[in-house]
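Morning, I've got a small favour to ask if you have a moment. I've dropped the whole record in just underneath, so have a look.
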Amino acid sequence: MFTGLVAVTGTVAAVRAKRDEGPGASLTGARMALRAHFEDGPLVLGESIAVNGACLSVDSITGDGFEIDATSETLTRTTLGSLEAGSRVHLERALRAADRLGGHLMTGHVDGVGSLVDRRDAGDAVWMAFRVPADLSRFIAEKGSIAVDGVSLTVNAARADVFEVTLIPHTIGKTTLGSLVPGGRVNLEVDLIARYVARLLSTRE
């Protein structure tokens, strides 16, 4: 589980595509090396870490960071397939039982990919509007929570296929969202409670 409070912004050092052997080999995933330093202690092999909101496992620890393997499923259903050397990513270690729950509960299972459709400065904050896949809009409610590239945000307004958020100065400085431009794609995870309530109601019907 995660909370959407980004601990570190890391940098992709290298990406190596993994393919089946033989002619017509298909993509099976990618190996990614990331540079990052965590102030709360060293990483442990096998631990879960959210990379732009997608839960992955630490497969190798290097001198300046770590390496992970992403399957073709992950690359297809998230924005991780577009990462390249030099890309900056949000990183969050899994929640510990004694940690404060400052954001909202997240699983690190990306529900879909959205895109920024508009943004404007609002004093020292930034207002943003994102378009979402049609099948996710029913899970997004005004004043509810949503994870955008692994960052826990409060929904200011929600329409048919668009929701609005405001980034405060701390979020702008701590994450890469402040540099996002219209057309930029982001990973989305809807509120966990909303998803289960919707499932419960659908089975009752």
User: Anything to note?
Assistant: The chain has two domains: 8-93, 112-204.
